Amino acid sequence: STHVLWFRKDLRLEDNTALQEALNSLSPNDKLLCIFHINEQQLHPKTHSHDYFFSTLDHFISNAKESNLTIHVLTGEITDAFDRLLQLYPDITKVFFNLDNRGFGQKRDLSITSFLESKNIQVNYFEENHLHQAETIKKPDGTPYKMFTPYYKQWRQLPKRSFQKINLKQYSHQLICHEDNFLLGTQALKELLANRNTDFSNIVGEQLANKQLNTFIMAYLDSYDTTRDFPFLDSTSRLSPYLSTGTISIRKIYQACQHLPDSNGKETFIKELAWRDFYHMIYFYHPNQYKEELKEKYRQLPWQQENINFEKWTNGQTGFPIIDAAMRQLNETGWMHNRLRMLVASFLTKDLLIDWRLGERYFSEQLIDYDAASNIGGWQWAASTGTDAVPYFRIFNPTTQGQKFDQQAEFIKKFVPELAQLPSKYCHEPSLLPIELQKELNFEVGINYPLPIVDHKMARNRVLEWFKEY
Ligand code: FAD
């Protein structure tokens, strides 16, 4: 009979549970057909994360071919696509995939599972993308945690599944190779890529993901606790894009650290991996969280909607250099450093009183590592509306944060080139640049770089009053 392996956001041949289980299930006369389904509904709007995902998919398909694994591309509504597949392979008896247990993926998985089961096809699915699944870690009373620290205590102690090597060669004669029947799907993928930005060659694929992991571990892991907050050092792992496409397994990252001697850097890094699981768990229990504040008392906060300040924030034209540098990094590269994500989210919500949902949506369009659970979690954290969020009275000062975490303005100068010629100390507050220096440098504040769009001190008091009322 024919068994089907369905790839999704798990574009890797190493340590992939569905792939391993599908291979294990093959008896000598069975064949394995590998598929990917392009879901047209999810292709709009065109976002950085889609561009990145499809570039990764394209690379993955070519790379898999080198290991004699053909990935056949299906298009169209999912049950129709499977209907057509069953006409070509009436002997399909088993389907394997790694589960997508959130949002659209969850609905699709539920409907396709009942469709396949109605045809007497066995559906085998696996929880794959996290070290601990949403329902694994609970309070002693059986309810999910709201606060990270007690969640993390349990998370840290629980044993974790280990990394598995996959030997594809052993099964090469059982893998169904390229079939003309799938040319339509291949063509659809080509067309899709032709209309997109696919300039991601230096950050796609398993090989580069592994290289990145090794470089990070060798060069930065030990000092991660002290260096991770300084954007210009670029010393965080940069593994998030690979994780968002499933190019690297989370078990591999964890295990690579686990084997190393203890250090504060290692412990802090592992804690970040737990935050990823924590936000996934919160999203699992609150699937509507992108619509409403988790803290009920804040659901009536009168957030402002799109306005000119929102536009200035998205374009990196707020007059606060660290905020502008961060937003321009996002717009130009599709990625932003974690400390800066916290700062720009705080600025949008606390200084401008603009709805965190708008910021969340903008990030979802721009980030190549977009992950709904972490993004919504991060935004609700910054807006003080999440379950375990920054208290509303802890408000980042964008100027002093810049001075603290980018003292020499190296990051600012890189992404806000109009400030590059200024002495570093003025890069944090260009409006303080003395008139004589402005003349000497041919730089006029308000002309060459915007004046701050808001008075932070005023904004701070305003938001404090605002939250106090609720
Ligand atoms: P590292 O510091 O090297 O961390 C290693 C890994 O741990 C990351 O790749 C990520 O998977 C995980 N991680 C680290 N910090 C967090 C965190 N705070 N929450 C959840 N997981 C974390 N992360 C995303 O992957 N996608 C998003 O869409 C996203 N949106 C965010 C929005 C806001 C407002 C904030 C404050 C944070 C957001 N994060 C998001 C979390 C974090 O900023 C990124 O994971 C991190 O910057 C990625 O860079 P890195 O791989 O070098 O991280």
TrEMBL record:
Reactions this protein catalyses: cyclobutadipyrimidine (in DNA) = 2 pyrimidine residues (in DNA)
Cell wall biogenesis/degradation recorded as keyword: no
Keywords: Chromophore, FAD, Flavoprotein, Lyase
Top-level taxonomic group: Bacteria
Record site: Electron transfer via tryptophanyl radical: W303, W356, W379
Pfam family, one: FAD_binding_7
Residues that bind FAD: 224, 236-240, 269, 272-279, 369-371
E.C. no: 4.1.99.3
Lyase found in the keyword field: yes
Enzyme class at the top of the EC tree: lyase
GO MF assignments: deoxyribodipyrimidine photo-lyase activity; DNA binding; FAD binding
PANTHER family assigned to the protein according to its UniProt record, in alphabetical order: CRYPTOCHROME, CRYPTOCHROME CIRCADIAN CLOCK 5 ISOFORM X1
Family: Belongs to the DNA photolyase family.
Protein name, entry field: Deoxyribodipyrimidine photo-lyase
Natural source organism: Vagococcus hydrophili
